[in-house]
Design a protein that fits this description.
The chain is an alpha+beta fold and 373 residues long. It folds into 3 domains: 138 residues, Beta-Lactamase, CATH 3.30.450.20; 78 residues, Orthogonal Bundle (Helix Hairpins), CATH 1.10.287; 147 residues, 2-Layer Sandwich (Heat Shock Protein 90). The protein is built from 10 helices and 15 strands. A 5-stranded antiparallel β-sheet has the order 4-3-7-6-5. A 5-stranded mixed β-sheet has the order 9-11-12-14-13. The longest helix is centred in the middle third of the chain and has 47 residues. The N terminus is likely disordered.
Length: 373
């Protein structure tokens, strides 16, 4: 990084809350570099070894206080809670000399959540001693909006695939019913009672297939009007376990719960229960011996994770697993995950899927609410 070569920036002369180089050796370059950094939308802050702010650009100043308020010389910890950047992690960068990056959630003054990508780089002198830390903060909301547009396009494609799947899933039993009725109509009088019973049984089986599909589709409209409010994830998990505890025991599956107490999320209680029920049912089908349910804070939100010790999901399956009617189960319709994602989206949350051999994590991320409000 170019700024790491200009270590004189860490020995500044303050001027109106901004940093000027202590010598004019590279003054032209330095002024040009600072002007360029002021022109970008990414927030930039330079910290010394004491975690004191030595320079910020306009984007960072506007983010925390406004461009006219002096920030130079203040401890970074004064702004860390607002910026959601872990001070201890920054201090490890100073001691270990290793940079890192992460996606965080920051809460704005009006209470809204803002997605921010954070990149941290150590600043070295010519002897590779760490003199300070450079922090860059880039808003991801616009990128998230573009991703949402792409997701909407993908949803339109999935809806087309879903209706094609519905036609296929309904077409097979309807054709079987039509064939059985045609045979009965033409040979009713000549058939023995046992033959009639055979064809009636076939028709009942096909009607059962239709009913199963319609029950799955009904879940799309079961929560048309979600009522978002304060929901305890602990209570949702406990209610779900009361239903699935016996099936888990019958399959010799151990279900462990690790939950941070007292958390509150913004959700619809019925929808969250259905989401957890769907995900845990999937985990029970995949697990070998154990399922872990973990609830805790995660990147400024609350994550509800269901982790199984099954074989994992291949990269090929991960690419298509969210499509309607995609299933690897002989008894499934392939709509469970589609319904689950729809409900999570209605609760303004996200579903993340991480998998490797021996471990699959289904992570539901929801907005945290003040437990004492």
């Amino acid at each position: 990084m170019a700024l790491s070569k200009h270590v004189d920036l860490l020995a500044p002369v303050a001027s109106g809350g901004r940093v000027m180089p202590s010598t004019d050796r590279d003054e032209l370059w330095t002024r040009g570099a600072l002007a360029a950094l002021d022109a970008i939308e990414t927030g930039v802050v330079l910290l010394d070894a004491d975690m004191t702010i030595r320079w910020v650009n306009d984007a960072f100043a506007t983010r925390v206080q406004g461009p006219s308020v002096p920030i130079h010389g203040q401890p970074f910890s004064a702004f860390s809670s607002e910026l959601a950047v872990d001070v201890e992690r920054l201090e490890r960068t100073l001691s270990e000399g290793q940079g890192w990056s992460d996606d965080l959630h920051q809460r704005t003054s009006d209470g809204a959540l803002r997605r921010v990508h954070v990149r941290v780089e150590p600043v070295h002198d010519e002897h590779q001693r760490v003199l300070g830390v450079l922090v860059l903060l880039r808003d991801e909301d616009e990128l998230h909006r573009l991703r949402a547009v792409a997701a909407a396009v993908n949803l339109a494609t999935n809806v087309g695939q879903m209706f094609a799947g519905i036609r296929h899933e309904l077409g097979n039993p309807v054709n079987s019913l039509k064939t059985a009725l045609t045979v009965l109509q033409s040979k009713w009088l000549s058939f023995a009672p046992s033959h009639v019973d055979y064809y009636l049984e076939r028709m009942l089986v096909e009607l059962g297939r239709v009913e199963h599909l319609l029950r799955s589709l009904r879940s799309f409209s079961a929560f048309e009007d979600l009522q978002l409010g304060r929901v305890s994830p602990d209570e949702a998990v406990a209610e779900m376990l009361r239903v699935l505890q016996r099936p888990a025991a019958e399959r010799a599956l151990a279900v462990r719960v690790e939950a941070e107490p007292g958390l509150v999320v913004r959700a619809d209680g019925r929808a969250l229960y259905q989401v957890l029920l769907n995900l845990l049912t999937n985990a029970m089908d995949a697990a070998h011996s154990e399922i872990l349910i973990r609830v805790g804070r995660w990147q400024g939100c609350v994550a509800l994770e269901i982790i199984d010790d099954g074989e994992g999901i291949s990269a090929t399956e991960l690419a298509v697993i969210r499509r309607p009617f995609y299933t690897t189960k002989g008894h499934g319709t392939g709509l469970g995950l589609t319904i689950t994602e729809r409900l999570i989206a209605e609760m303004e949350g996200t579903l993340e899927i991480d998998s490797c051999p021996g471990r699959t994590t289904m992570r539901v991320v929801l907005e945290e609410l003040d437990a004492h409000a």
